[in-house]
Amino acid sequence: MCATLARHGHDVTALVRRGDFGMDAVREWRHETADFEGLPQAWPDGLSPDCVVHLAARVHVMHDDAPDPQAAFYATNVEGTLRVARAAQARGARRIVFVSSIKAVAEVDGGIPLAESVRPAPRDPYGRSKRAAEEALWRLGEETGLEVVVVRPPLVYGPGVGANFLQMMNALSRGMPLPLGSVNARRSLVYNENLADALMHCVTDPRAANSCFHVADANDLSVAELLRGLGRHLAKPARLIPVPTGLLRAAGVLTGRAAQLERLTSSLQVDASLIRERLDWQPPFAVEEGLEATARWYRATH
């Protein structure tokens, strides 16, 4: 995101908690407290942002060992988000672009791609916290006049990807047989460069104010198509075994991985037509370009 904005001539400050950001064109502001506590008092003199893009989050995890996962998600994803929004608004920000998640709406699409008008029904602590943050920001906008833009991406991939996507690449690289040859459910994805470009439009376009947008690549893939595409770019042909979906879900119940298998075998497509129509946005990179870049990163680092 920072690289995209800087490349297009914007003056960018990166608010980070730890590590060396390492971009010459971007100023770094390190604030190491949990959930952005004390942010107003630590605000640098002379920093008057026009817009803040909020990407920080406690992310979805498969096995959460927090004593109270819901409270942990809310502390970061709701309270932390509001701290940033209020502090930025007090320093002159006119807009916040909040990166939420399609999980704030649903885990599956029910046969119809999910549009922004769908009534949200999040199913896990992460999704509920993202939805609560959306609602809190809308209220803040009504109270203060801060323009709010909510962006809900599906699974984000690209160089540096982790979690389940990285596990799939590891399996492909090792030549493991995968019982997913019969999984025809289609899943929307978004390449991180496409997401960054969409977010830049949400930062700069007046028509984005006080809107919610779903963002995705131009084409949705089935799980089998995704694996074959990644295998092609990794030069490790996918070894897919055609196991009926019903058997996979039954195995998930028996092994305690029912939720993971449901997500893997169910369709989750998003309707991204609104941002394309209202902001004249099109993904600048094709799915194949995104998969190729991801595979190139994997080959160089694993």
Automatic annotation (TrEMBL):
Domain NAD-dependent epimerase/dehydratase: 2-209
Pfam families per UniProt: Epimerase (PF01370)
InterPro entries: Epimerase_deHydtase, Lipid_A_modif_metabolic_enz, NAD(P)-bd_dom_sf
PANTHER family: BIFUNCTIONAL POLYMYXIN RESISTANCE PROTEIN ARNA, BLL5923 PROTEIN
The name this protein goes by in its record: UDP-glucose 4-epimerase
